[in-house]
Amino acid sequence: MRGLLGKKMGMSRVFNSEGEVVPVTILSVGPCVVTQVKTFENDGYEAVQLGYDLKKDKHLTNPLKGHFKKASAKPSKFLAEFDIVPGFDYVLGSIFHVGLFTQGDLVRVSGSSKGRGFAGVIKRHNFSRQKKTHGTGHTERAPGSIGQASDPSRVFPGMRMAGRHGNAKVTIENLQVVDVDKDNNHLILKGSIPGPKGSIVTVEK
């Protein structure tokens, strides 16, 4: 299996063998159930779909009820696809746990960053403030000029301006696995990952 779904529990710190403080993020990873195996013949590509976190039947649509019934799996709140491991025989309804990872592994974590609403250019793009003197006026946090006058008479696409900040998919690579707690399905990673506490993330080898 290439990866699993999990939930961000929060941050903490641990001490390594040399007595140094290491900031860590604690994830609740798995158990994840195989709900679908996609093939070239049926879907045009190969992948394995995993479900995470149980969901009540009354909250399911009829198509999803049939989807989980076909896999002989309990309904899941969250679904995600991962690349298959060549030669591995995936069975519908089988379950993968956090034991998939071992201490010292390097993983890639993807999640949604915290939404920070409508933000100006200083907070959103790290612009500098303007002068407060010499006739500048009350525009210390304004973006300044955004284009030319008569030529080309338009603002170029991609111009950095104020707008919605955060709430976007962010991927952090090469995070080291500090520890694996199989009893509690906890995965402890060195460093920080995107998103608030309780947010859903994918962890891939």
Description:
The chain has helices at 40-43, 62-70, 121-125; strands at 3-15, 21-29, 32-38, 47-54, 76-82, 95-96, 106-112, 118-119, 163-164, 169-181, 186-190, 200-204. The chain has a six-stranded antiparallel beta barrel with strand order 1-2-11-10-7-12. The protein is built from three helices and twelve strands, in the order βββαβαββββαββββ. The chain has one domain: Translation factors (Elongation Factor Tu (Ef-tu), domain 3, Beta Barrel). By secondary structure, the protein is mainly β.
Walk me through the topology:
Blueprint: E1 3-15, E2 21-29, E3 32-38, H1 40-43, E4 47-54, H2 62-70, E5 76-82, E6 95-96, E7 106-112, E8 118-119, H3 121-125, E9 163-164, E10 169-181, E11 186-190, E12 200-204
Antiparallel strand pairs: 1-2, 1-12, 2-11, 3-4, 3-6, 4-5, 7-10, 7-12, 8-9, 10-11
The total of beta strands comes to: 12
Shape: extended
What is the radius of gyration computed over CA atoms, rounded to a whole number of angstroms?
Answer: 23 Å
Specify the number of helices: 3
Q: Return the string of H and E elements.
A: EEEHEHEEEEHEEEE
Rounded mean pLDDT is 89
Name of the top-level CATH class: Mainly Beta
Strand content: 35-45%
How many strands, what sense, and barrel or not for the largest sheet? 6 strands, antiparallel, barrel
Architecture in CATH? Beta Barrel
Q: What is the SS-derived class?
A: mainly beta
Low-confidence stretches: none
- Supply the number of structural domains: 1
